[in-house]
Recover the amino acids of this structure.
């Protein structure tokens, strides 16, 4: 069965760096892109961007350019989200989600990781 | 960037009622729209893709409709397990923006 399993909760200080992993299983990793989604406490979902798992090319939403890096370890079917110089506003749950296409035209995020909570506190 | 305006932001309803949630895109997204359900403390789950197609395992009381800039998610005969938050998301070019969400609560 298809699963996305994310790394555990993180407690970091402002200015530190965090790296979250998302390990995929049950399908061919490089056949589907991987998205990252932020959900601040009590707030809605915010699309951060996605990474083409075949080419490794990332695409970032404007609010996530600079301190955010998407990367891959294809041999391990794992995607990573790294956030550097952490700020209070980065405190959130981060989800990875598989990008699926229907008829090579319509898209959706059909499988999601369980989420990784990042707490930023001095 | 395409903006997604979702309404209502919250809804208080009783089991057995029918509800409709709407999403308006700032430009034509050619039915490239998905709906998700999220329960408290859980990951979102895909309900509808391509505006009208139910994802695998989604009960038939859910239905999606719309075209152009206007889309809706309808839930007939609400069940207790349907309470939670609902989000639309477009896929007509990046950024793949979400709507602001609708929180469905028990009356």
């Amino acid at each position: 069965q298809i699963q996305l399993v994310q790394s555990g909760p993180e407690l970091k200080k402002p200015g530190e760096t965090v790296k979250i992993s998302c390990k995929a299983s049950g399908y061919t990793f490089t056949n589907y892109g991987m998205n990252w989604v932020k959900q601040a406490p009590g707030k809605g979902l915010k699309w951060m961007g996605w990474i083409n798992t075949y080419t490794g090319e990332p695409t970032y939403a404007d609010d996530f350019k600079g301190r955010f890096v998407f990367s891959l370890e294809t041999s391990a079917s794992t995607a990573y989200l790294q956030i550097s110089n952490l700020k209070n506003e980065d405190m959130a749950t981060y989800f990875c989600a598989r990008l699926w296409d229907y008829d090579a035209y319509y898209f959706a995020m059909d499988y999601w990781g369980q989420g990784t909570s990042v707490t930023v506190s001095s | 960037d395409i903006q997604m305006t979702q309404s209502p932001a919250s809804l208080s309803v009783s089991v057995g009622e029918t509800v409709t949630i709407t999403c308006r895109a700032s430009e034509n997204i050619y039915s490239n729209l998905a709906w998700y359900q999220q329960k408290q403390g859980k990951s979102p789950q895909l309900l509808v893709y391509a505006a009208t197609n139910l994802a695998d395992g989604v009960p038939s009381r859910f239905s999606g409709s719309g075209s152009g800039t206007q889309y809706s998610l309808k839930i007939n005969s609400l069940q207790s397990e349907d309470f939670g938050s609902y989000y639309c998301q477009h896929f007509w070019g990046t950024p793949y923006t979400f709507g602001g969400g609708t929180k469905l609560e028990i009356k």
